Amino acid sequence: MKRSGLIAGLTLLTALAIAAPALGAAALPPGLLERLERVVSLRDYNTRIVIAGVSLLGLAAGAVGTFLLLRKRSLTADALSHATLPGIALAFILATAMGGEGQSLAWLLPGAFVTGVAGVGVILLIRHTTRIKEDAALGIVLSVFFGAGAALVKLAEQMPKGSAAGLDRFILGRAASMIAADVLAIAVIAVIVLLVCTLLFKELRLLCFDQAFAASQGWPVVLLDALLMGMVVAVTVTGLQSVGLVLVVAMLITPAAAARFWTDRLASMFGLSAAFGAAGGAVGAVLSALFDGLPTGPIIVLVCSAFFALSLVFGAKRGLLLRTVRHLGLQRRVAEQHLLRALWEAEEEQGPQSTATAARLQAHRSWSALALRRQITRLRRRAWVRLDAQGGVGLTAAGRVEAQRVVRNHRLWEMYLIAHADIAPTHVDRDADRIEHVLAPEMVERLERLVAAQEGSAAVPASPHELATPAPGGRS
Amino acid sequence: MTWLPADTSIVLSGALCALACSVPGTLLVLRKMSMMGDAISHTVLPGLAAAFLVTQTRAPLPMFLGAAAIGLVTALLVQWVRDLSRTDGGTAMGIVFTALFALGLVLLRLPAIEHVDLDPSCVLYGAVETAAIDPTTVFGVEMPRAALINGIMFAVNLAVLLLCFKEFRISAFDPALATTVGINATLMHYILMTMTAVTTVAAFETVGSILVIAMLIVPPAAAYLLTDRFGVMFILAGVIGAASAAGGHIAAIVVPEWLGVGDTVTSGMMAVAAGAFFTLAWLGSPRHGVISRLILRWRLSLRVMREDILGIAYRAQEQEGPATLPPVAATDAIARLRRLRPIIARFALTLLRRRGLVRGPLEQLALTDRGRAEAARLVRSHRLWETYFSHQFPTLPADHLHAPAEVLEHLTDDAMRDRLGERTSEPSVDPHGRAIPGASSGES
Fold first, then answer.
1. Which residues of chain B are within 8 Å of residue A247 when distances are taken between CB atoms?
2. Predicted TM-score of the model (pTM)
3. Which of these, A332, A341, B159, B294, is most buried using a 10 Å CB contact count?
4. Nearest one of A114, A112, A118, A111 to A94, comparing CA atoms
5. Is any Cβ of chain B less than 8 angstroms from the Cβ of A253?
6. A324 touching B, CB under 8 A?
7. Which residues is B138 bridged to in the sheet?
8. Exposure on the CB side of residue B416, measured as CA atoms within 13 A
9. How confident is the model at residue A47 (pLDDT cuts 50, 70, 90)?
10. Which residues of B are less than 8 Å from A135 in CB distance?
């Protein structure tokens, strides 16, 4: 799994690395440099507005997304963003019927908020009153609310008064239509979200990691949960206009998921996630301003996804590369120690200072000739192993010390299993084989006490079972 | 409202689409992977765009191949992201499908593809109204193209289901068991993912890629509330889906007429109709519905109340002697009960009177002979349970025996009572020193 994962991750990265310039080249306009300068120096008013708006949105979404992700509610955000559509249409119809300005966000966003919350309520209701599982409840709310929304938008478009043209911009988002007032609204939401998250950081952390404990300590868990979902709805609703309701969920979860690879501390993850979100928004907005025809919302999501892919591979805490390197290091140590033990056992059998042929060692562990040669080279470099004139392999004095430790651990564990876990002597070898490499000194001490071996002395007890004899003809 | 031949075509196309969706949908709901259907219905968009970029044609075959491929890619990516980032499946799905959907939206803006009729809003909403009218001729019979495509899809899905019915059943409920009996659960998983993706493409012209999930999930979820049988669930899901298509179209004609406006989105109305059917099942399902469970609970509390009244009357007469009428203590106790759950208590009392177990008004309530026999059985259960607990848990304080016995007395049948008597060697008094009515007293 690990290897296939590494391949998958690298393929993903390569694909991204190839696709990004290719996409860029396809849409490469003349005079890119001047454009880049214009965009980066924020000379255009519109660009300035859009970049500020989506960065703030990314900041707020990344912040609240951290908790959403840890509470494993990612797809609830997806369902609720779809559930906002009927609210938008209904608010428009209501506003127009009452003679108001239906296109005003002051009407539309509260409408979106109401049905979004209603959607979450129905999900909870289905989960608690039927045997239907979370996933189907999400699917039902998402599709039925969205269907109702699509039907209502069409109805709204045919209202005699008022023009509902462009209500569907909330589905796929249209960041270019952002105005200064929208940015202000996003800024207010972002400040509120950051403030609430900071002030209630401890409470939200408890909610994410141990809800039952929080409840037993008397924290108002339901209220906190409602507050969190309320913030999610608020961020979702403000994000509808720029990213659209299909993709806004990515702003919430992808930066948080990316941040997870870099740290195990909630506070750092929170900050990092908010930073990823803001950077994703800014980079996405710049890219779509640079190239004609690149839609802002999808580009922001793709930038966030690229952050995620990069974090997945290079993350400093759980990244694939790091884990693979660690894993390979462990594998190497295990292989070294296996060779040392094989040599020790050969000495036990044939007398001290004796050597074993490669064929004998190969038979011992079904090593391939290549792998064995590589192990021997590596151990020779450490001066733990020597070769005699006939090509036989033997331990050096330093190697013997190390081998002694490993074999001792192995046999202590075997004796422990036989004495205390009631396992037949013929069956203990495999278990001990795996654990001998990771026994800590304290553990060894306890084992010594338990199997009454001579404490402190480094003497190796005899093997409690017959050592597997390699195929005949392999002895030197 | 006037019904035109076109309306029949629309309903036919929608119904066949719903039938085709009900097969993978039911399996998705049972495998608890409904949102995978959502994810795949989104990622079909980049699949179609990529298929077009490669082949430069909108012919059905490349489109289907593109969809099948993207279905597998989505499933694999979700698996990888979940395993590598050690998050929950939902997060992995959300990350993968938004990335792919965004990619699809960007691809659609490429100059090479822009002129193609792959309008995102058409992909989202579908165009059942026009797709259903677009005719095609097969074997000399003229039929709507959408109906033909969805009909073929339904036939293919049904064939796959029937072919692998046993395998699907086992891996739907217990993938681990499936693996141990030699069925490749992973293979079944990917077959299902491919089926979902291909069905989604077939359906996206009819109901649109997002509303596909309504047809995939909502009818099977309603069916799940109505039956406990695997095979029946498919049939019910298909029927509910087809009914949603018909009901949705009728609503799409009728509702705008009421409001005095032109028309609305048929596919959206079909999703709403499916939601309505789900709500009906949610409320009215015979076994899992809200109403039937309310009734069940109410009947249970009514029976408990009836038995409590009998027990109270019995104990009161026991204390004051059978000759004493009216049993004052009973009146007190019943008055207390009435304050607690007044409606149920009154109703229970009426029932008891009608069955001839008690007589007289509340103030002079008395047990009839049959009532006393019934009450004796109940009190016997209660006191035998107390005795049993005091034997089983000798350290349990005496005042802790009553509460569990009070619950269990309502759930004890004759056979259980006899066994309790045997296990406690037929005591004559309970741990509190009160007499236990004999086993025969019930029949007197």
1. 98, 101-102
2. 0.82
3. A341
4. A111
5. yes
6. no
7. B141
8. 14
9. confident
10. 29, 32-35, 90
Which pair of structure tokens corresponds to residue A233? 């709805």
Which backbone phi and psi does A192 adopt, to 5 degrees?
-60, -45
A436 close to A410: Cβ distance less than 8 angstroms: yes
d(CA B26, CA A324): 39
Nearest-CA neighbor of B349 among B333, B327, B365?
Answer: B365
Dihedral, CA of residue A167, residue A170, residue A175 and residue A181, to nearest 10 = 70
In the chain, the amino acid numbered A33 is L
Strands B366-367 and B358-359, by their bridges, are antiparallel
Per-residue model confidence as pLDDT tens digits over A204-236: 999 988 888 988 988 898 899 889 999 999 999
Chains A, B: CB pairs < 8 Å: 228
Burial of A14 (0-12, 13-18, 19+ CB in 10 A): exposed
Is the CB of residue A192 less than 8 Å away from at least one CB of chain B? no
Would an 8 Å CB–CB cutoff place A341 in contact with chain B? no
Least Cα separation, residue B77 to chain A (angstroms):
8
Q: In this structure, are residues B15 and B22 in contact, taking their beta carbons and an 8 Å threshold? A: no
Q: Are B251 and B266 in contact (CB under 8 A)?
A: no
**Structure tokens of A397?**
């004095």
The answer, for B345 touching chain A at a CB cutoff of 8 Å, is: no
Comparing alpha-carbon positions, the chain A residue that sits nearest to B73 is A8
Rounded CA-CA distance B111/B123 in Å is 19
Q: Is A72 on the interface with B (CB under 8 A)?
A: yes
Mean pLDDT, residues A273-280: 95
DSSP secondary structure code for residue B86 in this structure: T
Torsion angle defined by CA atoms of residues B275, B277, B280 and B285, in that order, rounded to the nearest 10 degrees: -120
- Pairing mode of beta strands B141-144, B135-138: antiparallel
Report whether A158 contacts A92 (CB < 8 A).
no
Q: Which of A82, A140, A287 to mutate to test the interface with B (most CBs of B within 10 A)?
A: A140
- Containing A381, the helix (H) or strand (E) segment is helix A369-381
Q: Which of B362, B354, B332, B344 is nearest to B303 (CA)?
A: B344
At residue A395, φ and ψ (nearest 5 deg) are: -85, 145
Segment A134-142 mean pLDDT? 93
What's the sign of the alpha-carbon dihedral A460, A465, A468, A472? Answer: positive
Q: Is the pLDDT of residue A472 over 50?
A: no
Measure CA B80 to chain center.
30
CB B198 within 8 A of CB B212: no
**Probe site for chain A from B105, B259, B285 (most A CB atoms < 10 A):** B105
pLDDT category at B100 given cuts 50, 70, 90 is: very high
Question: Residue A7: how many CB atoms within 10 A of its CB?
Answer: 11
Calpha distance B11→A150 (Å, rounded): 19
Is residue A246 within 8 Å of B42, Cβ to Cβ? yes
**Residues A39, A290: contact at Cβ < 8 Å?**
yes
Domains, chain B? 5-214 (no CATH), 289-366 (no CATH), 368-444 (1.10.10.10)
Tell me the C-alpha distance between B401 and A382, whole Å: 73
| Residue A25 CB burial class (10 angstroms; 0-12, 13-18, ≥19) | exposed
Q: What is the ipTM of this complex?
A: 0.83
The average pLDDT across B71-89 equals 86
Residue A305 tokens read as 């996804």
What residues does A386 pair with on adjacent strands? A394
Q: Is B292 touching A (CB cutoff 8 A)?
A: no
Closest by CA to A242, choosing from A185, A158, A178, is: A178
